[in-house]
Amino acid sequence: MFLKKNIYVLILSILSFHLYSQKDSTKVKNEKVEKNLFVQEGLYKPLAPAKAAFYSAIFPGLGQIYNKKYWKAPIVWAALAIPTYYYQTNNSEYKRFRTAFRLREAGFQDEFTLDDGSTTVSDTTLERAQKQLRENRDLSLLSGVILYVLQIVEASVNAHLLQFNTDDNLSLKPTFIMDPMLFDAPKVGLTFKYTF
Questions:
Q1: What tens digit of pLDDT does each residue of 138-172 get?
Q2: What integer is the mean pLDDT of 63-67?
Q3: Which of 32, 84, 123, 144 minimizes the number of CB atoms within 10 Å of its CB?
Q4: Taking a C-beta distance cutoff of 8 angstroms, is the pair 190, 174 a contact?
Q5: DSSP three-state, residue 119
Q6: What are the phi and psi torsion angles at 79 (to 5°)?
Q7: How far is residue 154 from each of residues 44, 112, 134, 151, 164, measured CA to CA in Å?
Q8: By the 8 A CB rule, do 28 and 41 touch?
Q9: For position 107, what pLDDT does the model report?
Q10: What is the pTM of this model?
């Protein structure tokens, strides 16, 4: 059993040396222009990911536009608009309940106190509402910051990946094959399909 596993590992490691995924597109040609001046030509632009991240940090979605992924910009704007909306809604409601609680503690009439002196909302409900709305507001702010950082990272990573040759002509598709004849003790096989 131990020998059989070692043989499988050895065969898979030998086969893995022959797998290549893409050509190196980061090679740069150097041409001598004058005495010691070189002009670099090639596909690799080292400042492109930094520019994309910088543009996304300045204005969300601009890095995606810089990468020519125009369809991602409205998604970024919508993703950042949702936590902004919930932050503003929860913040205004928090301030409303906070003002009512402070007025009631000071002995004044608040918006939840009727003219006859009865209250529609109790003191504990006002405290719970403040606590819940503050948590929701802070969660909205945190999710907005996380989405803002993620769109910067996405623009930078996308700019990095645009510089590599990703040819679909070479692929590896492992598949598992079940033996339908043996129901009691099923066998599982592994097939590698190479496409060039």
A1: 999 999 999 999 999 999 999 988 877 666 665 56
A2: 93
A3: 32
A4: yes
A5: strand
A6: -65, -35
A7: 19, 47, 30, 5, 16
A8: yes
A9: 86
A10: 0.62
